[in-house]
């Protein structure tokens, strides 16, 4: 049962749900990546994926629900824009740019997935997933 409120306790519970989900996902997916149909490249899951997503998605019930659809989002999200990394953000430092991708989920709406592109290797790393207001 995922708590829907906004108390600190409920947010912490959702954060644990997300971290546990990623841990189980990594056990089911030893390569820790999925092929994205839009980019025609693999999107990888790394520690930064878990840290950023659990910290941000846990603040919203719908974002937490969205993370539990990780496979669908990784495979089906479409690139909508490219952004520069935020200066001074240590988690974004290894990336040369950030891809903004979106995916529609029934009952949740539009989900935004940010993907970092590593500087030297060009490896695509899922950075964060959040449900965005679809109004």
Description:
This protein has about 140 residues and is an alpha+beta fold. About 35% of the residues lie in helices and about 30% in strands. The chain contains four helices and six strands; from the N terminus they run αββαααββββ. It has helices at about 10-30, 45-55, 60-65, 70-75, and strands spanning about 35, 40-45, 80-85, 95-105, 110-120, 125-130. The chain has a six-stranded mixed β-sheet with strand order 1-2-6-5-4-3. The two termini are about 25 Å apart. The mean pLDDT is about 95.
Low-confidence stretches: none
Give the overall shape: globular
DSSP, total strands: 6
Query: Helix share of residues?
Result: 25-40%
Along the chain, the helix and strand elements come as: HEEHHHEEEE
Query: How many whole angstroms does the radius of gyration measure?
Result: 14 Å
Strand order of the largest sheet: 1-2-6-5-4-3
Structural class: alpha+beta
Main sheet: strands, sense, barrel: 6 strands, mixed
Features:
alpha+beta, 135 residues, 6-stranded mixed sheet, globular
Task: List the SSEs and their pairings.
Elements: H1 8-28, E1 33-36, E2 41-44, H2 47-57, H3 61-67, H4 70-76, E3 78-83, E4 95-105, E5 109-118, E6 124-131
Parallel strand pairs: 2-6
Antiparallel strand pairs: 1-2, 3-4, 4-5, 5-6
Helix pairs in contact: 1-2, 2-3
Task: Report a brief summary of the structure.
This protein is an alpha+beta fold and 135 residues long. It has helices spanning 8-28, 47-57, 61-67, 70-76, and strands spanning 33-36, 41-44, 78-83, 95-105, 109-118, 124-131. The chain has a 6-stranded mixed sheet.
């Amino acid at each position: 049962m995922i708590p829907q409120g906004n108390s600190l306790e409920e947010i912490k519970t959702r954060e644990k749900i997300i971290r546990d989900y990623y841990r189980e996902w990594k056990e089911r997916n030893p390569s820790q990546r999925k092929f994205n149909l839009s980019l025609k490249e693999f999107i990888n899951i790394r520690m930064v994926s878990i840290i950023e997503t659990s910290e941000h998605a846990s603040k919203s019930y719908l974002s937490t629900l969205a993370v539990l659809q990780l496979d669908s989002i990784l495979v089906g999200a479409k690139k909508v824009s490219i952004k520069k990394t935020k200066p001074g953000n240590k988690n974004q430092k290894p990336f040369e740019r950030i891809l903004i991708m979106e995916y529609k989920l029934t009952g949740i709406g539009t989900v935004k997935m940010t993907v970092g592109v590593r500087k030297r290797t060009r490896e695509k790393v899922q950075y964060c997933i959040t449900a965005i207001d679809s109004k």
